[in-house]
């Protein structure tokens, strides 16, 4: 099983970063992965636009957002996620995290 590249993007004004990191690490354990999680702070609107940052926290697996929402504006803000049960949360649905991690781990390594 390959170890995907995992990033957590955050903004200082968001109180959900630690919760998102804890839930991400739990999802990694659940699927049997142990990659390093890169944590990057997004500090400016310019950086947010360059990263297509739709708010904090954002989890990227191999560069792809685990819960892309093309209706969300890009910028420095707290992010809102829709859970599978229809509820609203400041962090991604743990089932979405696990599913995205499994898919990424099962993908073949890209050869250069």
Helices and strands in order:
Blueprint lengths: L5 E5 L6 H14 L6 E5 L3 H7 L6 E4 L2 E2 L15 E2 L5 E2 L4 H13 L6
Parallel strand pairs: 1-2
Antiparallel strand pairs: 1-3, 3-4, 5-6
Brief rundown of the structure:
The protein contains three helices and six strands, in the order E-H-E-H-E-E-E-E-H. With 112 residues, it is of the alpha+beta class. The strands form two sheets. The chain has a four-stranded mixed beta sheet, covered by helices on one side. Strands 5-6 form a two-stranded antiparallel ribbon.
Walk me through the structure.
The protein is an alpha+beta fold and about 110 residues long. It is about 30% helix and about 20% strand. It is built from three helices and six strands. The protein has helices at about 15-30, 45-50, 95-105, and strands at about 5-10, 35-40, 60, 65, 80, 90. The strands form two sheets. It has a four-stranded mixed β-sheet with strand order 2-1-3-4, covered by helices on one side. The protein has a two-stranded antiparallel sheet with strand order 5-6. β1, α1 and β2 (about 35-40) form a beta-alpha-beta unit. α1 packs across α3 (about 95-105). The longest helix is centred in the N-terminal third of the chain and has 14 residues, at about 15-30. The model has no long low-confidence stretch (mean pLDDT about 90).
